[in-house]
Amino acid sequence: MTLGTVIRSFASPAAGPFGLTWAGRTLWNTDRGTGNVYQINPQTGTTINAFAFMLTDIVGITWDGRALWVTDRLVADRVHQIDPNTGTEIMSFPAPAADPRDITWDGRALWVRNQGRIYQVDPQTGTVITSIPSLDANAIGLTWDGRVLWSTDDFNNLIWKVNPQTGTGMESFASPSTSPTGLAWDGHTLWNCDDNTNMIYQIAIS
Q: pLDDT by residue (tens digit) across 66-82?
């Protein structure tokens, strides 16, 4: 398959999909319309589990192998670690900058984006390790594939492969629709949710 080919798609659980992450065998999706977090079967698109978090404007989400992390975009500008079984908060710390959007886990640290930059953050303290410029100030989605970052560009309707040392774009392809938000990496393919179509897409990168 060529870069950017849609392998499968299905409707998101609700009408405001923003954050997306892969957790071993399932997807997790945050929805700004409902304020809920949804666990999704990636083969069928059916909801396995759902819970309401204590915030109404959660955007980004990632999985660290044990717990979920979500960003609070407008209420308190914080990053929260939450129990995936109960939805209760384990810990939180201030986001590295105002208006935090998507978040991803690289195996040791978190990456959190806001309008202008992407920050690598210590998950224990919230201390910024490094930061790189964002290709698009309006971007939402962010994920780590084990070597590099992938980022949405909803101004140009693109998904970019990003150098994590410099923030420069390495290659890009057209997003499936016109409002790409959350991104996830399952080890082989990308997943993208879109706030315009309210769909979730599995996308080939090779």
A: 999 999 876 678 999 99
User: E strands within 64-156?
Assistant: 68-72, 78-82, 89-94, 103-105, 110-113, 117-121, 128-133, 142-144, 149-153
Contacts of 147 (CB under 8 A, 6+ apart): none
Cβ neighbours for 58, distance < 8 A, ≥ 6 positions apart: 18, 19, 30, 32, 35, 37, 70, 71, 72, 73
pLDDT for 132-176, tens place per residue?
Answer: 999 887 788 999 999 999 999 888 899 999 999 999 999 999 999
Residue 144: Cβ-neighbour burial (10 angstroms; 0-12, 13-18, 19+): buried
The domains located in the chain, with CATH, are 6-203 (2.120.10.30)
Going by pLDDT thresholds of 50, 70 and 90, the confidence category of residue 58 is confident
